[in-house]
Protein 1
Amino acid sequence: MSQKNDRQNLMDKITSLAKRRGFVFPGSEIYGGLANTWDYGPVGVELKNNIKQAWWKFFVKNREDVVGLDAAILMNSRVWEASGHIAGFNDALIDCKACKARIRADHLIEDSLNIKAEGMTPEDMTKLIEENNIKCPVCGKKDFTNARKFGLMFKTFQGVTEEDKNIIYLRPETAQAMFVNFKNVLSSTHKKIPFGIAQIGKAFRNEITPGNFIFRTIEFEQMEIEYFINEKDWEKSFEYWQEQMASWLDYIGVKKENYSIREHDKDELSHYSKKTIDFEYNFPFGTKELYGLAYRGDFDLTQHQEHSKQSMEYFDTENNRKYIPHVIEPTFGVDRSVLAVMIDAYCEEEAPTADGKTETRVVMKFNKNIAPVKVAILPLSKKENLSKKAKEVFDLVKTEFASQYDESQSIGKRYRRQDEIGTPYCVTVDFKSLDDDAVTVRDRDTMKQERVKVGELVEWLRKKLS
Ligand code: ATP
């Protein structure tokens, strides 16, 4: 089978496992779905929460120089005027006149010519598509409209009348709330530069192109830090945050060989940025942005100072001078993190069955710190005395470790289910347990089994899962 088919198969396998085992379901499925929306199921929500909590610990709780924020999604529209989103946050679209497919012009150029189209005008894109005889990826014809801009922000109305003056927007990024609250955070915490404000929250973009599962959705979550610095330190700080982002990827189990760093070319950079890099992951559908790191200069705070007429200056007591801080912005997509760790965790292995044959075992080898379920308690049979003993063991571990109790179907099927959701340890309670007060613990990765005394189980798990 060709490599391309292998990678496509991998995506199909992950999407179907995600549904089968309760990681991710198609949004509004019983009504035929809603394009580019997905719902996290019982296992998926645990995985996603573990990633968010690990991020908060890694970048906020464990540091002295970063504080948190949880701002409202709906903000005064003037925020988006100041940030430049109302005027400039749009994609260039073209329509195929033959089959009516609506396509992002930059993606079409990038996929067909293997060049980056960020920063090009719609006119440039139209010309490039014509000159290179690019065909519609859906029907193969060459009959496009001109490229034109399409706003990405979702609009709604505040109040009872749907008039222009009542328009408000669902935020397309979490970042602006950190700038708008810069002075509030400063005066309430007395932080000294350099320091950062971090936030995890929903963002919304009216994306019209096919999303590749949870890679590109219209509603998604971001984890962002705005790190305020003195201009002279920007290069050092940029390098530092690049290293921190790489350590984070290692911490959640994204393998080094599966991602790379790409620096934006000069003509691709936003006008206010001197340097931007993307952490690109080798997704089955292509190498695409996972996270971004940008040096934004003093653009955002200056814009908000001009538009709000409120000072965004920082007073440097050591040097007795006021200045508008510069910003380094590390930005992380939660959903793209979930997707990358699922792809990296997915393994198929040949494993022996109870009757001496072999079968293909699908196992999600998540890093233990983010695995959605840490321990499964499995009584060997549904006999009453075994269930009772197993429930006692479950009660013992469930308060400290995310645990599942499962007594339905054969033990082989239950192991397979736990492997597919990536549970590091399966604890089997058998008839011998009633006599020796011990259980068998099976390791997800090695499938080795170890007998552990019930009284020592919590401590044993603590050591293994720490
Ligand atoms: P892309 O080029 O893929 O559209 P972007 O450059 O517009 O992404 P940013 O504005 O830098 O993305 O957003 C920061 C992060 O938010 C991205 O690195 C990504 O992880 C995540 N993100 C952005 N758009 C989406 C989306 N539509 N769905 C899911 N995650 C997203």
Note: The two ends are 41 Å apart (CA to CA).
Protein 2
Amino acid sequence: MAIVLIGFMGAGKSTISRLLAKNLAQPFIDLDDELEKTLAGSIPDFFAEHGEAAFRKLETATLKQALQAEQIIATGGGIVTSQENRQLLKKEHVIYLKTQPEKLVARIREDQKTIRPLAETKTDHELLALFLARQAWYEEVASIMIETDQRTPAEIAQKIQEEVSRWK
Ligand code: S3P
């Protein structure tokens, strides 16, 4: 089974997955990076040209491909919006990184490196609403939930490792 990290934009999925993969000496894949390789371009450009629905189709195809291997997978925050994805994820070990929504919005706004098309076009209030609309889906597919607010990335990875050791 794969270990899949889910959560809203800015939850730290990529950072924690990378750390976890290093600690567990397991392969790691970031779906957004994979998508950009497939597109040979950036996610914001793809959104601008083809729209969200086309992005979601590619995202599902990339997820399916990634699930072929037993590896640690960092997902994009919108992975749970598709019912097909949710069904796929329910068969895996899924870790939901739960973070206070206000903190997520602040991190998204501060992040100079990652341009997130869905965040660019939204006010803070609309972003919070998007989080609330997805929250139940994150919880629905999660095998475990880790509260990230009071923890460093190293502590979060450690906590996940404790859980993972119970699965084996
Ligand atoms: C999205 C989140 C992004 C990326 C795309 C759409 C979303 O990934 O997949 O911009 O719908 O929440 P991160 O969660 O890694 O920012």
Note: The mean pLDDT is 96.
